[in-house]
Amino acid sequence: MGDRPVTYRRLAVLLAASLAPLTLSGPAAHAVTAAAPYDFNGDGRADVAIGAPAATVAGKSQAGAVSVVYGSASGLRSSTHTLITQNTAGIPGSAETGDAFGTSVASADLNTDGYADLLIGAPGEDGNDTNDGTVVIVWGSKSGLSGARTLPNWFYRDQDRFGQSLAAGDLDDDGDTDVAVGTTGPNNLTFVQGPITKSGALNSGSGASFEWGASHSWSDAYGITHLSAGDVTGQGFDSLVVHGRVAGTDDTITALADGRISNYTDWLQRLPDGHVSAIGDIDGDGHADIAVGNPRETSADPSGAKGGKVTVVYGGPDGVDITRARLVLTQDTAGVPGAAETGDGFGGGLSLGDINGDGHADLAIGSSGETSGSATAAGAVTVLYGSASGLNTQGARTYTQNTTGVPGTAEKNDHFGARVVLADQSGDHRADLTVGGPGENAGDGAVWSLRGTATGVTTTGSTTFGPPTTGVATTGSPKYGATLGG
Fold first, then answer.
1. What pTM, to 2 d.p., does this model score?
2. Whole-angstrom Cα distance, residue 55 to residue 468?
3. Cβ proximity of 18 and 266 under 8 Å
4. For residue 169, how many C-alpha atoms fall within 13 Å in the half-sphere facing its CB?
5. What CATH class has 314-468?
6. What's the Rg (C-alpha) of the chain?
7. Where are the domains of the chain?
8. How many other CB atoms sit within 10 Å of the CB of residue 2?
9. Mind listing the pLDDT tens digit for each residue in 398-413?
């Protein structure tokens, strides 16, 4: 499994948890400035990775595929794209039934060559056992993505579904980009230390599992279900938001991790419990803030709410800023369009990005179960804007396929908003809104692109495209847009 050291510790934690310290290496000298995540061709514009983990490839059902659509001066341009499957030349492995390639994606300039690289998780990949899982790195270049290597899974005997969640960033504050991989099993989080290069031996890694007191022990069966990373402390390294389930239930549990801390009592801070999260600086104070989404009802999860909810936690030099009140948002919150209704799924999709270029991150919230007109679960996306005082509801707006200018028509089970991304795809320093609707056209799925302007999201010039546009087969409901990264 390689010649570099790896460490493993099982973590017994109380109210403040701890994770095994990473085995540090000295920072490498970097020749060029690292590209921003998802800028695969180094042109200063974000590209978008679209996962279709249920796609059929060469007759293999649910083998999975990822389409990468490149940004341009006019935003996403679907005619310029790269299709990646495990049958693509240069990609390790081969497409097999149930691999679910594209279940998760993440991006960073791992080798610091000026081009962002793409990480793709395939948790259904069979290795030594069924559903061992794998993660593939596809390398960026001036001409886009090509060539790949597999991320090592040093703890394959202690985990399954390696790659079910992914995040990348400088997690240990040594100047190099690391990768965090979520899995199931008794060792349910793996770190691979940077720098990660196209060839040669990789640096050391570490792994851990979680226990958070008798009533909040983390479930090995669910493992780490979602990861996000960002500079919450404002000190130039990335903290990690970790999502899982409480053992013996499917209730959510969420924590903020500081990978610099090497003891066993201080490395985790409790966050509002939820399924997904997004990180960005809402108030412009230099500390990234955290939005946690829980789309479930309280009958299914005690941390949920009728119709779902989003909780915003503000960052500070020590991680969570405990002096500031959390902002809890539902569709019954004053200023938020709509009304909280059972099954809306508000908070199932989240992204933070600066839409209007004012220096404050704005928040896009997907509600994939929202009824639009008479169409149940057609889906919707709500956008709220940041300010120096934090996120506010003034000027909030909701978009559906029945909104003027948005292509298509809201239909039952489209699940528009199941995934959302805010990223600058045109290079104008304003984030554009990308929306995934994996239920569109009876499970074929589709993606929509709406431009960001100085006054917010505009539907003028909005575009949409489905799997055939980027080479994904519609056989067997691929659920194109079930995963989005940008």
1. 0.93
2. 11
3. yes
4. 22
5. mainly beta
6. 20
7. 314-468
8. 12
9. 999 999 999 999 999 9
